[in-house]
Write a structure and sequence with these properties.
The protein is built from seven helices and no strands. By secondary structure, it is mainly α.
Length: 178
């Protein structure tokens, strides 16, 4: 009989713990995300979606000078304003030969800014929160880590964009050579 009582207590305790976690999210991160999404949508409305679209058209230009625009600025703006997964739609302004590289850069950037901009990818926020909890348990601030994560992410997406663009060009050249 004791085993049945312990099993029942464990079972209800599991749901009580889940309820506590849910309540902490509703009282903590959920309002933050709602306010951030509202702020970003208001900013897009103030700037005008057509102006944001023009950045995509500008990034589609040929030349090495447009690499930072195409693989740093455009993915950053797309991820910041459109969030995951809508950010990938910003690639529609690019010629076909740039789309795989833009996608690679954008999809690689939906995690690095989470420490500063959690609205970007709230579904994956648990990764950042786990890291942050470890850093905070050491008595350290998470801000320097969040900033470095964001900066290193920008460097990585720039490199990935250029490499993927190059690989795409090679693959397309092989396909048209046959």
């Amino acid at each position: 009989m004791d085993a049945l009582v312990h099993a029942a207590e464990w079972f209800i305790g599991l749901f009580q713990t889940g309820g506590g976690v849910f309540l902490s999210l509703v009282g903590g991160i959920v309002p933050l995300l709602i306010v951030l999404l509202t702020g970003v949508n208001a900013l897009v409305a103030l700037i005008g979606p057509e102006k944001i679209d023009k950045v995509g058209e500008w990034a589609a230009r040929d030349g090495i000078i447009y690499y930072p625009v195409r693989y740093i600025l455009l993915p950053f703006l797309a991820v910041f304003f459109l969030t995951n997964p809508m950010a990938y739609t910003m690639g529609r302004f690019l010629p076909e030969r740039f789309k795989p590289a833009f996608y690679d850069a954008a999809v690689s950037y939906v995690h690095p800014p989470l420490g500063i901009f959690p609205h970007i990818n709230p579904g994956e926020l648990f990764v950042w929160l786990g890291i942050a909890a470890g850093i905070e348990s050491l008595g350290l601030s998470t801000v320097p880590l969040a900033v470095w994560y964001l900066v290193v992410g920008l460097i990585v997406i720039f490199i990935r964009g250029i490499v993927t663009e190059r690989i795409t060009a090679i693959m397309w050249a092989r396909r048209t050579a046959k």
